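Support reply, case 0932

Customer input (verbatim):
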Amino acid sequence: MFMQDEPTLKFHGGMFMSFIPVVIYALVCATLFIYFKAFNMEALAAGGLVALLIGGLACTSYQKFWEAAINGISSIPSVSVIVILLMVGMFSALVKLCGLSNGFVWLANYTGIHGSLFVAFTFVATCIVSTATGSSLGTMFIAFPIFYSAGLALGANPMMMAGSIV
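Our regenerated output:
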């Protein structure tokens, strides 16, 4: 039998109320990505903070909720993920400023790659980026600004481009 040393958090309305922050954050992500087509790290962080604030209200002890949240955030794996995402965000901003997407359009035109062939190239390139970052979200933040607009400029199907990146 599994014994838990640490006390668990109690929520008004039962443990299903603990899913409130997750649901709110998923809705924020879906709204940002699907409706606004915005890939912004600051907006995602703000959505996470709002989800935690609202989720804390569902907990019977606001102080214990935030102690648990801080313990989770300050763990070594969490800090590693945060640092990786910050580096990916900086790299993504640098790539956008350098106009790398325009370079891919030029290179594809020069080599004769258009449409579906560029979708296949994007898939392979995104797989390589994903291996390097180790983060699916970080990969999307890097790949969408570079490849998606270049693929559309080269006549690729928008759905296939999005699928090759995701």
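We compared this against your earlier run and they match. Two observations from our side: Residues 7 and 158 are 49 Å apart (CA to CA). DSSP finds eight helices and no strands in the chain. Please reopen the case if you see a mismatch on your end.
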